[in-house]
């Protein structure tokens, strides 16, 4: 038995390393491809970019979000699961209401959620896989999470302002045509302001981490990945960048965290409180059905579901809004509310 458990731990650690390496290689390849394409004068049409986004976010990444909740709720008591689901649904309803009442505010909240998800989730991956000894305080960890998450939204906002504004307009127009016009005169100021804040935060994060590091390799890996993410979102067009970031980086790295955590928890023996596999699978299937039912209901309720765009373009806008709506409770309920375990659990 000891040999089997030792082999499983090595397998989990090995799988974790492969997933982490694969996520970095994927981003490097995409950066290289788009740099070469730019040099050769080749560009992807917006329709093609939209198709890539929908494949990455809906076909690849959306099921993984359900898997995160399944892994989290699998060992929990039924009473906790019911409170979890109730809180999740309440936040979904609340976020939908915000979009209908004040769509520009809903858009700002959606951007903040993406930053929180990419940042906080990414930080927990570092905790589980390579360590964060260079992050000494809560404030420093918050800064690290903001920088990691800020690469997902603030960097493309700065480097791809036209595309970012266009899809923001489509997202808002689904709820109220022309509502984004109130933001448009201030868009450049917002772009440069957030860009400056992010630049200061990124430099501060790397510099303070270096000054406080215990193991140079841990700090260097964090700094290197931060630079890689900035380069990725600066070079790759925003629609493709966001659409592929979540399956190729976020989901792959969360899988690496799970592999690392599972290899560690083998030391504590089997968990007799875990629910039956059939129950977990049923919850996963039920969650998938409920998710797509919610998407269908939202589409029916929207005043302008196509927002004047083509099928693919409007599809990107719609699913960005929808994924943002379910991502808010994903972060708040799935992690911050669940202080004992959470979707980004690290022992």
From TrEMBL:
<comment type="function">
    <text>Catalyzes the cleavage of beta-carotene at its central double bond (15,15') to yield two molecules of all-trans-retinal.</text>
</comment>
<dbReference type="GO" id="GO:0010436">
    <property type="term" value="F:carotenoid dioxygenase activity"/>
</dbReference>
<keyword id="KW-0560">Oxidoreductase</keyword>
<dbReference type="GO" id="GO:0003834">
    <property type="term" value="F:beta-carotene 15,15'-dioxygenase activity"/>
</dbReference>
<dbReference type="Pfam" id="PF15461">
    <property type="entry name" value="BCD"/>
</dbReference>
<dbReference type="InterPro" id="IPR022270">
    <property type="entry name" value="Blh_diox"/>
</dbReference>
<feature type="transmembrane region" description="Helical">
    <location>
        <begin position="145"/>
        <end position="172"/>
    </location>
</feature>
<keyword id="KW-1133">Transmembrane helix</keyword>
<dbReference type="GO" id="GO:0016121">
    <property type="term" value="P:carotene catabolic process"/>
</dbReference>
<keyword id="KW-0472">Membrane</keyword>
<comment type="similarity">
    <text>Belongs to the Brp/Blh beta-carotene diooxygenase family.</text>
</comment>
<feature type="transmembrane region" description="Helical">
    <location>
        <begin position="87"/>
        <end position="116"/>
    </location>
</feature>
<protein>
    <recommendedName>
        <fullName>Probable beta-carotene 15,15'-dioxygenase</fullName>
        <ecNumber>1.13.11.63</ecNumber>
    </recommendedName>
</protein>
<keyword id="KW-0223">Dioxygenase</keyword>
<keyword id="KW-0479">Metal-binding</keyword>
<feature type="transmembrane region" description="Helical">
    <location>
        <begin position="223"/>
        <end position="246"/>
    </location>
</feature>
<keyword id="KW-1003">Cell membrane</keyword>
<feature type="transmembrane region" description="Helical">
    <location>
        <begin position="280"/>
        <end position="302"/>
    </location>
</feature>
<feature type="transmembrane region" description="Helical">
    <location>
        <begin position="192"/>
        <end position="211"/>
    </location>
</feature>
<feature type="transmembrane region" description="Helical">
    <location>
        <begin position="311"/>
        <end position="337"/>
    </location>
</feature>
<keyword id="KW-0408">Iron</keyword>
<keyword id="KW-0812">Transmembrane</keyword>
<dbReference type="GO" id="GO:0005886">
    <property type="term" value="C:plasma membrane"/>
</dbReference>
<feature type="transmembrane region" description="Helical">
    <location>
        <begin position="20"/>
        <end position="38"/>
    </location>
</feature>
<dbReference type="GO" id="GO:0005506">
    <property type="term" value="F:iron ion binding"/>
</dbReference>
């Amino acid at each position: 038995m000891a040999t089997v458990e030792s082999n499983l731990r090595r397998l989990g650690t090995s799988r974790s390393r492969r997933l982490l390496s694969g996520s970095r290689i994927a981003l490097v390849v995409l950066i290289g491809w788009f740099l070469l394409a730019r040099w050769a004068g080749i560009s992807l049409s917006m329709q093609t970019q939209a198709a890539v986004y929908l494949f990455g976010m809906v076909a690849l990444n959306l099921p993984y979000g359900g898997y995160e909740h399944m892994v989290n709720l699998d060992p929990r008591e039924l009473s906790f699961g019911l409170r979890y689901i109730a809180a999740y649904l309440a936040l979904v309803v609340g976020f939908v209401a915000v979009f209908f009442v004040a769509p520009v505010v809903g858009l700002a909240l959606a951007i903040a959620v993406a930053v929180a998800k990419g940042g906080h989730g990414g930080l927990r991956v570092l905790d589980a896989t390579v360590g964060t000894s260079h992050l000494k305080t809560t404030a420093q960890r918050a800064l690290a999470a903001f920088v990691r998450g800020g690469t997902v939204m603030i960097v493309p906002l700065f480097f791809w302002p036209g595309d970012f504004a266009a899809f923001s307009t489509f997202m808002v127009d689904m709820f109220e045509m022309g509502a984004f016009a109130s933001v448009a005169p201030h868009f450049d100021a917002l772009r440069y302001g957030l860009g400056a804040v992010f630049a200061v935060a990124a430099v501060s994060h790397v510099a303070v981490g270096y000054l406080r590091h215990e193991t140079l390799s841990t700090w260097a890996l964090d700094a290197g990945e931060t630079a890689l993410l900035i380069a990725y979102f600066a070079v790759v067009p925003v629609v493709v960048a966001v659409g592929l970031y979540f399956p190729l980086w976020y989901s792959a790295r969360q899988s690496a965290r799970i592999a690392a955590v599972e290899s560690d928890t083998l030391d504590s023996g089997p968990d007799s409180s875990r629910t039956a596999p059939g129950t977990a699978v049923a919850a996963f299937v039920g969650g998938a059905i409920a998710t797509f039912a919610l998407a269908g209901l939202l589409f029916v309720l929207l005043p302008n579901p196509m927002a004047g765009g083509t099928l693919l373009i409007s599809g990107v806008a719609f699913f960005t809004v929808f994924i943002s709506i379910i991502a808010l409770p994903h972060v708040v309920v799935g992690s911050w509310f669940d202080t004992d375990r959470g979707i980004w659990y690290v022992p």
